[in-house]
Write a structure and sequence with these properties.
The complex is a heterodimer of chains A (about 270) and B (about 350).
Chain A lengths: L2 H14 L5 H4 L2 H16 L14 H9 L4 H11 L1 H7 L2 H4 L3 E5 L2 E4 H26 L2 H10 L4 H31 L7 H29 L16 H19 L2 H13 L1
Helix pairs in contact in A: 1-10, 3-8, 3-12, 4-8, 5-8, 9-10
Chain B lengths: L9 H23 L6 H16 L3 E2 L6 E2 L4 H8 L1 H19 L4 H28 L5 H30 L6 H33 L1 H6 L3 H7 L2 H25 L1 H11 L11 H14 L26 H32 L1
Classes of the chains: A mainly alpha (about 270), B mainly alpha (about 350).
């Protein structure tokens, strides 16, 4: 069952995000902005671009190295969520039958090229998103979003959601375990039991929420969440943002891969 | 059916982000007008509930495969349109960040596809009229199934539209629509049954629980659905306008979808009108002087690789060479930093 895995993963990413490295010390706002710009840049490449996307691998690899994020973890998670992109992309080779000359008469269907392009873009964008959360704590991201203009009601609600996730997932995990034990691991017990499980989880959730809410009122909650951690845009953030923008623009405008390839080919041949 | 970044063009992604953000801002503003400090924690808790509930698998009757709930309709029925939309948006945000479901650019699309339709169409315009004030179990079941099915159908159609407008997939419009709508018909029916089951279970077991919840539900009930409808139409018009504006600056996607919608080269006047104009723009922009690119003849064939150097074999070789070198350099940089950091610590 993947349940324990999921639970472990979300906790693991959370723990990673509280470490202290160069990347972690950057202001959450700058990381959110750069990640969005990076994703937009990756996605803006035309559908047959493969080789010109290569230099963009620099960002996730640099970021994961500088932040000590386990590279395998990111790769594994990218693999886990890939089915949708594969599911849609796999049709390209069948419907796009134009051919492309690779080298001296070796031909390949254009559809395979666009599928490859989709998969590379997928890897790049997903790892950028995962690295954002692995190097910026979730509360950090919420504060960044709020400072960037997302309504406070939405972000404080997001913070609540995040705090309850761990509690409720434990609750759900207990229920799933009980069900699995009583059915010897087989989940063929029909939809009625499932509905009751969800219903019960809902009732427990609301009751717990009321208790927690009372407790929060006693501790002086007035509808707003405060954070001790103060964020400010430091010179490092300005440098990070401007450097990223410059590199992204240069890479997007000039096909670095092609330039290097031609240069090397010129030397070799 | 999460949309993925890799299937999107920047224009489509940005447009749906704009739409979703506008709705988030609108809902937050509206909910602020009815201050109930109990509401925000409750919304958070219910978001976490949906999260946890999605982790409980069940066997889909008759198929043997297992599935989990989406939860959009359950939220809408319990919280009302605005609050449920915000909760769904935050659930999707957490999923995009921690499980990388789709990615950050596609998050705008996902909030639109899975949030707008159940909260602002299926619930107020389908579920509520059918159930009335205190509906019987039969009414709840019928209303839940119809609204869940229609909500998901609209969401699935959105995924198709977004994919088509982005022009990254080669799937023909008809095939894709048929595939997505049928898959989600089944999912919708099961989702509707589960929604009805959960709602009636909670109503039977703890009827006072639903009544004790904050008044977000009644707020939407009080607001006339006409007003809601007008808002939604306006939003759709703005989004549509923005979309077409974006699309025209990116001829690739629009031209592509026009071709797809009208069935490929059958249109005799294909070379006239806007398609021809757009194609002209595309031809001018696609052939970068840097590529030694030779325009191939394509009689009757509309689709062609435009940015891949197709004729000159030498360029392709240099591309592959360059790609290998760039990747190697990037990897060496990464490993180098790791090695240096590892030695230091």
């Amino acid at each position: 069952m993947t349940f324990d895995n999921e639970f472990f993963n979300i906790g693991y990413l959370d723990r990673l995000s509280y470490r202290d490295t160069v990347v972690h010390r950057l202001d959450p706002r700058s990381k959110v902005i750069v990640t969005m710009l990076y994703v937009l840049t990756v996605v803006s490449y035309p559908k047959y671009d493969v080789t010109s996307l290569m230099p963009l691998f620099l960002y996730p690899i640099l970021l994961s190295a500088l932040s000590d994020t386990p590279f395998l973890l990111i790769a594994k998670k990218v693999l886990i969520v890939s089915p949708f992109a594969v599911f849609i992309g796999i049709f390209n080779p069948f419907f796009d039958t134009g051919t492309i000359d690779l080298w001296r008469g070796i031909q390949i269907s254009a559809g395979w090229i666009s599928l490859l392009s989709i998969m590379i873009k997928f890897t790049l964008t997903i790892s950028a998103a995962l690295l954002l959360i692995a190097t910026t704590s979730f509360p950090g991201i919420c504060h960044a979003l709020q400072e960037l203009g997302i309504p406070a009601l939405f972000t404080s609600q997001l913070l609540f959601l995040y705090r309850y996730i761990f509690v409720l997932m434990e609750e759900a995990m207990r229920m799933v375990r009980a069900r699995d034990l009583r059915t010897f691991g087989a989940r063929n017990i029909g939809i009625t039991v499932f509905v009751r499980l969800i219903g019960l989880l809902f009732i427990r959730t609301v009751e717990r929420a009321e208790r927690i809410y009372q407790a929060m009122l006693f501790r002086g909650f007035h509808g707003k969440i405060f954070s001790i951690k103060q964020h400010s845009l430091r010179p490092a953030d300005t440098a990070f943002i401007s450097l990223s923008v410059i590199v992204l623009v240069v890479l997007r405008l000039f096909n670095l891969t092609d330039l290097i390839g031609r240069f090397v080919q010129g030397i070799l041949l | 059916m999460h949309m993925a970044d890799a299937m999107l063009s920047p224009a489509v992604g940005a447009t749906f982000w704009t739409g979703s953000l506008a709705t988030i801002t609108y809902c937050s503003k509206k909910l602020r007008e009815y201050p109930d400090e109990k509401l925000i924690p409750l919304m958070g808790v219910l978001g976490a509930f949906i999260f946890a509930a999605q982790m409980i698998n069940f066997t889909i009757p008759g198929t043997g495969s297992s599935g989990h709930i989406g939860g959009g309709m359950i939220l809408a029925i319990i919280l009302g349109s605005r609050a449920s939309f915000l909760v769904m948006a935050s659930v999707l945000t957490v999923q995009a960040l921690f499980f990388a479901d789709g990615g950050l650019l596609a998050l705008g699309c996902n909030i639109w596809n899975l949030g707008i339709y159940p909260s602002f169409i299926a619930y107020p315009l389908i579920y509520k009229p059918i159930v009335h004030a205190d509906g019987s179990l039969k009414r709840i079941v019928i209303a839940s199934v119809i609204s869940a099915v229609l909500g998901l159908q609209m969401g699935a159609f959105s995924v198709v539209t977004e994919t088509m407008l982005s022009g990254r997939s080669e799937l023909p419009f008809g095939t894709f629509v048929l595939m997505m709508q049928t898959i989600h018909l089944g999912i919708g029916i099961v989702e509707g049954m589960v929604t009805a089951g959960v709602i009636s279970f909670v109503r039977n077991a703890r009827p006072e629980l639903l009544e004790r919840l904050p008044t977000a539900g009644t707020v939407t009930a009080g607001a006339s659905s006409r007003k809601l409808f007008v808002t939604f139409i306006l939003l759709a018009a703005i989004t549509g306008g923005a979309l077409s504006w974006f699309a025209s600056t990116f001829p690739d996607g629009l031209e592509w979808s026009i071709e797809r919608v009208y069935g490929k080269p059958e249109l005799p006047d294909q070379e006239q009108g806007i398609t021809a104009v757009l194609k002209g723009i595309q031809d001018k922009t696609a052939f970068l002087p840097d590529y030694n690119f030779q325009k191939p003849e394509y009689a009757g064939q509309q689709e062609k690789p435009s940015s891949w150097p197709s004729v000159d074999a030498g360029t392709s070789l240099s591309g592959i060479l360059g790609a290998g070198i760039v990747l190697a350099v990037v990897l060496i940089i990464g490993l180098g930093i790791r090695a240096i950091r590892g030695r230091r610590s």
